[in-house]
Amino acid sequence: LSGGTPQDPGVISGAIRYSGSFNNKERRRFTGNLNLANVQVALYPLLQPLRELNGKIVIDDKGVDFQNIKAIVAGFPAGFNGRWRFSDKPQLLFDLAAPILDVTYLISQIDPEVGEFYANLQAEGKIALNRGRIKNFEFGELKTDVTIDRRLWRLYNLSARSGGGAIAGGTTINDRADSLAIAAAPKIQAVPIETFLRWFNITNTEMTGRVNLNGNLETNGKNDT
After folding, report:
1. Cα(68)–Cα(50) distance, integer angstroms
2. Tens digit of pLDDT for each residue in 67-106?
3. Side-chain-side CA neighbours of residue 136 (13 Å)
4. Where do the H-state alpha helices sit in 98-172?
């Protein structure tokens, strides 16, 4: 790997096999079956390594399977299953689950100079978070389908809880190198007004009650602020 030393924690066991010509790509074959136990590994573009990485990696002619992968990501435990496909689109199919995740902090631990990998990534999957936060927006029981197409994120079939109320709908995030655009069509049901206003950093209010709202939100600028 590009980083790390033999003194890093963890054990990798199993087998990898290579056969074929170094000069002819068509005649090469690389397969493997690896078990990971408490491994630490740098994973670009994260600024800190994955820790306590456990699970199984299976490599065949068409791609790489990630089976029951569990790791500490930027201080948060997470589970991952997926497949990286060598030639088909989207390249990555995945399921990601975490008991708790501070999305704002996680984003701060991603190298802003993400390079061509993120710019060209096409992925499709599902995300489930038991509890999480994005700035002042705290949520629970979040589930969503997601597609990523060259820095364009689409979240659909989204559902979550916040303050005892419910949130549903879909969101599109266009995360360009020099701008950020967000379009959302939320359906908010029975969210306490104090919780709703806190999303927008408004805490000084004597209002009571619950918010029910259907609408559209579009915003764009140089960054999330």
Report:
1. 15
2. 999 999 999 999 999 999 998 999 999 999 999 999 889 8
3. 12
4. 103-108, 115-120
**Reported pTM:** 0.88
Contacts 24+ apart (CB under 8 A), 138-142: 138/162, 138/195, 139/167
> Nearest CA to 41 among 66, 92, 70, 5?
5
Q: What is the Cα–Cα distance from 81 to 97, expressed in whole angstroms?
A: 9
At 147, phi and psi to the nearest 5?
Answer: -125, 145
Hey, which bits of 42-91 come out as E strands?
50-59, 63-73, 76-85
State the residue for tokens 């950093």.
201
Tell me if residue 196 falls in helix, strand or coil: helix
Amino acid (one-letter) located at 59: I
How is residue 164 written in tokens? 């005892």
Q: Give the 3-state secondary structure of residue 224.
A: coil
C-alpha distances out from residue 72 to 48, 56, 99, 142, 216, Å: 10, 16, 11, 20, 36
In angstroms, the CA 96 to CA 19 distance is: 33
Helix (H, G, I), strand (E, B) or coil at 164: coil
Extract the tokens encoding 100. Answer: 């708790």
Q: Give me the phi and psi of 36, to 5 degrees please.
A: -110, 135
> How confident is the model over 130-149, as pLDDT tens digits?
999 988 889 999 999 999 99
Tell me the backbone φ, ψ of residue 75, rounded to 5 degrees. Answer: 90, 0
